[in-house]
Write a structure and sequence with these properties.
By secondary structure, this protein is mainly β. 13% of the residues lie in helices and 36% in strands. A hairpin with a 4-residue loop joins β8 and β9.
């Protein structure tokens, strides 16, 4: 009976479509519990998923905020230092040169306002742009400017971080900002929400 069930399941299931199936309970003691069969290829994939690869960042200090975009990532340390890595094709890493950078590189350009205490407290990565929030409530954006996602009133690419002047002139103290694929949102200390960028779908 068991062999008949197995033959029927094998007949109805394609090994290319289904990587595993359960054998129903039978009177045979060897199969008193459902058994899982897995192909060798999927077994290796499952084993590799159980063993993640870690990157040591002990030398960089503790980090408070991390963010991953489409093809770039960033994190902020407890000392307000920003490290970015990945693709810089649109300037999303805040660097002039194009290319891909696999090693986290510290960005020291936060002294735009000439205030040493104006540190980065938050970072968010979008599809091809990056948003930074400082301890003084300023928002800086960089990268691809299509759809106005950078908030500078144009659609130009910005390869160096630039303060969003509209928020600054509005005396908005931003606590947190978040990048979507093609838009950006910011939350002020008065719980006011600001958004800009691609809005055709209601974003």
């Amino acid at each position: 009976e068991e062999q008949r069930i197995m033959d029927e399941m094998t007949k109805n299931c394609s090994s290319q479509t289904y990587s595993r199936f359960f054998v129903p309970e039978t009177t045979d003691r060897r199969h008193q519990r459902p058994k899982t069969f897995m192909t060798f290829r999927n077994r290796r994939r499952a084993e590799s998923a159980e063993k993640p690869q870690y990157t040591t960042t002990d030398k960089l200090g503790q980090y408070n905020v991390i963010s991953a975009g489409h093809d770039h990532s960033a994190f902020v340390t407890d000392k307000g230092k920003v490290y970015l890595f990945g693709s810089n094709d649109k300037g999303q890493l805040g660097r002039e040169e194009k290319g891909k950078f696999s090693i986290p590189t510290k960005w020291d350009g936060i002294d735009i306002q000439r205030m040493a205490h104006n540190r980065v407290v938050s970072v968010s990565c979008g599809s091809a742009h990056t948003c930074l929030v400082t301890s003084e409530g300023y928002v800086l954006t960089m990268g691809c400017g299509l759809n106005g996602r950078l908030g500078h009133g144009d659609v130009k690419e910005c390869r160096l971080p630039r303060v969003v002047e509209k928020l600054k002139t509005s005396n908005a103290f931003i606590k947190k900002a978040c990048c979507g694929g093609r838009h950006t949102m910011a939350l002020s200390d008065t719980s006011r929400v600001y958004s800009w960028g691609y809005g055709r779908t209601g974003a």
